[in-house]
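Two entries, shown back to back:
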Amino acid sequence: MPKLTNRMYPKAFVAAILLTLLSVVISHAQKRGLSEAEAVKLAERFIAQNGYTDLPPEKDKLVNESYELAESVEEMVKERRDTLERKAYGVSSGRKGGSPGWTVVFRYKHPSDQQMRSNGRAVTMNLDGGKMRVEHVDFILKKVDKRL
């Protein structure tokens, strides 16, 4: 192991201080959660990018649902196409299972029966917007904390 000389101590000290400051900044950024409005905008962009609206999907940004039946990207995009309204219906704090985060709910655009008119799809994410996904089970619209 190399021996530290007196000239190396100041550099090592500065490096240690910089690493400590960097970890504090990163930790603070991770703890800073999105506001409700930011979470809604992020979810609206996410469902559009993933092909659930009438807008063209961004195929390089597609995220699989936890339970996806489509056998190809083309089939997945076709099944999702124009199924949800572009604008969020409502938002709830928290994620499925009670963990911290956001749940942003979208109504079906062309509901075929009463159940589809009573339910929607939810985009869930961590407080910072990470680990975003469309839940594969319907969300009961009456259970939304806040309608938008």
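entry 2 starts here
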Amino acid sequence: MPEENNSVSGASAGNVAMRPAQSADDPDDVRKYLSNDICNSYELHSYRHAAAVLNSSFPVELSELESALREFSLTTREIQMPGGNESEIPKKFSRILRLLGWEEARIFGNLTVFQERYTEEENDTGRLIKRKLIPAVPVVLENYLDGHKVDYVKGRVAFDLEWNSKDQTFDRDLYAFRTFHECGIIGVGVLVTRSANLNPVL
């Protein structure tokens, strides 16, 4: 099954829902691959068959994520607390997932670019022949990938939480998922965020 920029977005029955996308999977198909209680408790959006990829290729990681989602709950005090990584909400996931081997991951790297130059010369028959002028010389762009970070990675599955995020941090996480995928590090990404259904309450 292709692992092509897959992502699943979850939101507690009140968790900001992922923006609609043309590639969103059919909700009835998504339910086939995830546990009923998770489907009933969370607003779920799957893109590019991410739910199917999780179920078939990463069943252990899916089971652990579903267990963490089952244990997750909210109190009035936690809702009233200011956002940020130091709030209780991300710590709840860390207490569960860190013990199961989900680790923070950051990728960085240089890009090596080679440039070749050619000239054309006319041979004895009048045909133009392309000739390389000099051997390719590498040019290194340092820190071409710098600091893309995901809070939880296990095997080829990435998971992140954006509870009180602004649009730019939400987009940053999606970009990090995409970069990890393009570098061959992950096959699927899962993002939990607050549903728009919670806005009246909050």
